[in-house]
Description:
Layout: H1 2-14, E1 19-22, E2 35-37, H2 40-48, E3 58-60, E4 73-75, H3 84-93, H4 95-101, H5 108-113, E5 120-127, H6 131-134, E6 140-144, H7 151-159, H8 164-169, E7 175-180, H9 187-192, E8 202-204, H10 208-214, E9 223-230, H11 233-237, H12 245-266, E10 271-277, E11 282-283, E12 294-295, E13 306-308, E14 316-321, E15 324-329, E16 333-334, E17 344-345, H13 351-354, E18 355-363
Parallel strand pairs: 1-3, 1-4, 2-3, 5-9, 5-10, 7-8, 7-9, 12-16
Antiparallel strand pairs: 6-18, 10-18, 11-17, 13-15, 14-15
Amino acid sequence: xxxxxxxxxxxxxxxxxxxxxxxxxxxxxxxxxxxxxxxxxxxxxxxxxxxxxxxxxxxxxxxxxxxxxxxxxxxxxxxxxxxxxxxxxxxxxxxxxxxxxxxxxxxxxxxxxxxxxxxxxxxxxxxxxxxxxxxxxxxxxxxxxxxxxxxxxxxxxxxxxxxxxxxxxxxxxxxxxxxxxxxxxxxxxxxxxxxxxxxxxxxxxxxxxxxxxxxxxxxxxxxxxxxxxxxxxxxxxxxxxxxxxxxxxxxxxxxxxxxxxxxxxxxxxxxxxxxxxxxxxxxxxxxxxxxxxxxxxxxxxxxxxxxxxxxxxxxxxxxxxxxxxxxxxxxxxxxxxxxxxxxxxxxxxxxxxxxxxxxxxxxx
Length: 364
């Protein structure tokens, strides 16, 4: 109730004046027809210029400065929408606006390149994890999935083109080390690990302890390490009984992400460890919540929340990502119901699916 009241107040204020917003940027998806300004200094120069300035509903973000004294400040400490169903409707409606100001998967590579004064940079790629699963852990921020929330799109958004390994090679990280739970004889894996030599730099692992042991292969000189692990995706598609999501997410943070930092610290290696997920998971609604997924049958769709190709169906958006067209559904719509052992799905647009964690740990 408090969150809804504050957002309503912010909505009213924006009709009268620019507003300084301090809080989770993605919550601004609740508001329509807004303009986000991150460079406050330039915005002040435009406002003070005698030339005419268009009237816009302007939200000021960025580091707090003395300029902020000129406008009202709205502070929100919450990170998760209080009413997810309402937020999901607004996220779908305002998606194009949100993707212009949110930190997205396509921003990950540039963020990694900002700080290279270490011996080792590690990127942990996680298959299936929502922002809300790691929201209470240190070093974690929200990251928007651009387009359908599926693995081929999400991971390729993160790795980028040119891929992170190539970008870092030009910046001095001339050694590479890769680990994956997936087989290398896989087209997507080849794309994600482009430039990694199959025989000397790329290793298939079954358990994460093999990754920690494999770090012994690190040699002198700046090195880029890329690790691909299973997240919650595998258990969402087939599990006897509702999966223990919180426990699994905690294990991913402590036994995988933090374990990488601890292992590198033992080796006395200065390192930055990043983690990013390809997509989140929309879990089957709890019966006690009184919610349910709405089925819109379409024989052209083989998945629950998206379809390949541009289909003219209600409650959907079309995307073209990496040369492929997709039709993506709003919440709570699905093309087909979840099967008995399926507890979660992904591919559509929702806070649960479209907002993933981007995390950073430092070893000095």
